[in-house]
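Key result, reporting period 2: structure in, sequence out.
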């Protein structure tokens, strides 16, 4: 499933500092429920963060990357989003972005798998909700943002959270979580499932790829996750789907199908097509950045 280009595990946050300023990023180390140590890149808006936290709201954004490369090269684009949010609400709301490096990626240990990455996602969300707020009186809104396969990770994590009893807890004190709900889901260039992609990319019946579904080790079934969220007793999240107009990897019908699924489940959903964007270009295009910032601002 994953693709990690050569030397991507040796990339450093400091190599991208100039492009990220004034946003400061820190590498944090946490452990998933199975003990695997994973890395996070945590970015916050510069200024008196503690004072802002006391006065206003806190929006915790957990970012799930696509399956190619590592986090540091993505930080300039993520910084642009935080800088735009800072200009809009410099004092009333704190936005913190927690970017997850899946196991086996960047400086995280372990080997990637759907089950393992799901544990990584749960640990990152737990960190965002328990380690970031500076004041217990500060309300925290949780938004999950996933790009490409990361959209499947975000939906899977949201489905788990929405179906978790409010008083559920793990035996490990560091992994205890109250089962928080997810107000917002930002899905950037998503696909319906790995199996659906096989059929979409290889529609020819004489090719063997479309018949490999039963042998898949990773599924990332976004439609099933949306149904699970809808069937939970909690309120459904707002969903923003960002589709790249010139996506060279994911067919446009995939985003349309997810939008239709959300509407059939009576979820609040919008789908925006970002002009001239390729699969990995959405967040760096001005239109895409505006849509992302506008969506996140609504939770502040």
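The corresponding designed sequence is given below.
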């Amino acid at each position: 499933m994953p693709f990690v280009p050569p030397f991507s595990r040796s990339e450093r946050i400091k190599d991208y500092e100039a492009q990220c300023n004034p946003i400061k990023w820190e590498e944090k180390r946490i452990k998933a429920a199975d003990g695997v140590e994973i890395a996070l890149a945590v970015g916050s808006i510069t200024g008196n963060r503690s004072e802002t936290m006391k006065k206003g709201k806190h929006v915790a954004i957990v970012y799930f990357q696509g399956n190619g490369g590592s986090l540091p090269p993505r930080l300039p684009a993520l910084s642009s989003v935080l800088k735009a949010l800072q200009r809009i609400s410099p004092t009333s709301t704190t936005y913190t972005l927690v970017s997850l490096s899946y196991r086996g990626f960047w400086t995280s240990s372990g080997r990637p798998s759907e089950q393992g990455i799901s544990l990584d996602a749960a640990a990152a969300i737990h960190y965002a909700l328990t380690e970031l707020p500076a004041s217990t009186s500060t309300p925290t809104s949780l938004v999950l943002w996933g790009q490409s396969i990361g959209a499947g990770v975000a939906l899977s994590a949201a489905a788990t959270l929405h179906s978790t009893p409010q008083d559920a807890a793990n035996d490990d004190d560091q992994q205890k979580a109250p089962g928080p709900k997810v107000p917002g889901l930002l899905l950037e260039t998503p696909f319906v499932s790995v199996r659906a992609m096989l059929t979409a990319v290889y529609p020819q019946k004489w090719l063997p790829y479309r018949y490999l579904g039963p042998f898949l080790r990773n599924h990332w079934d976004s439609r099933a996750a949306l149904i699970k969220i809808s069937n939970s007793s909690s309120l459904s999240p707002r969903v923003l789907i960002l589709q790249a107009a010139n996506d060279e990897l994911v067919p446009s019908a995939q985003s349309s199908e997810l939008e239709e699924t959300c509407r059939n489940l009576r979820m609040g959903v919008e789908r925006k097509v970002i002009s001239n964007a390729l699969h990995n270009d959405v967040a760096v295009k001005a239109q895409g950045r505006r849509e992302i910032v506008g969506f996140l601002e609504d939770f502040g």
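The longest helix spans residues 114-130. The first strand starts at residue 24 and ends at 31. This case is discussed further under Risks and Mitigation.
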